[in-house]
Amino acid sequence: MHSKKVTLREKPLLHNRKSLYLDFYPPIVHPKTGKMSRRLFLDLFIYAPVRFKVKKSGELIPIYAEDSNENHFREQHNATSTAMANHIFNEWRNKLFKPEIYTEFERKLLRQKEL
């Protein structure tokens, strides 16, 4: 039996952004298309830093935009999108690796939801 694996990944986009998606191995049945797929795009993105600021301690602080208001907005956006992506990642990980935590009825409901 193959070991199952799911990883949260980023794909570069235009305008200094990155798309968030789940990478599965082996492939799973895609919930929307019904076809086998290794990737599930989450319709979430984060901003990539345009540069880094170095603190006296040597810590790197990402700067997402030159305008401080825009930078704050992008930091908040990244935090929210990353939290949502991690939540979805954990749901899929639980679904793939912990089927024993579900009752037979819950498994049937999950399967119907997938279809």
Outline the structure in words.
With 115 residues, the chain is an alpha+beta fold. It has 2 helices and 5 strands. The protein has a 3-stranded antiparallel β-sheet with strand order 1-2-3, with helices on one face. Strands 4-5 form a two-stranded antiparallel sheet. A hairpin with a 5-residue loop joins β4 (51-54) and β5. The chain is elongated. The mean pLDDT is 88.
Topology record:
Elements: E1 5-13, E2 17-29, E3 36-47, E4 51-54, E5 60-63, H1 68-97, H2 104-114
Antiparallel strand pairs: 1-2, 2-3, 4-5
Entry summary:
With 115 residues, this protein is α+β, with helices and mostly antiparallel strands.
How can the largest sheet be summarized?
A: 3 strands, antiparallel
So how many helices?
2
Rg, alpha carbons:
18 Å
Question: How many DSSP-defined strands?
Answer: 5
What overall form do the CA principal axes indicate? Answer: elongated
Q: Decide which structural class fits the backbone.
A: alpha+beta
* Mean of all residue-level pLDDT scores: 88
Q: Uncertain runs with pLDDT below 50, 5 residues or more?
A: none
One letter per element, helices H and strands E, the order comes to EEEEEHH
Lateral strand order in the biggest sheet = 1-2-3
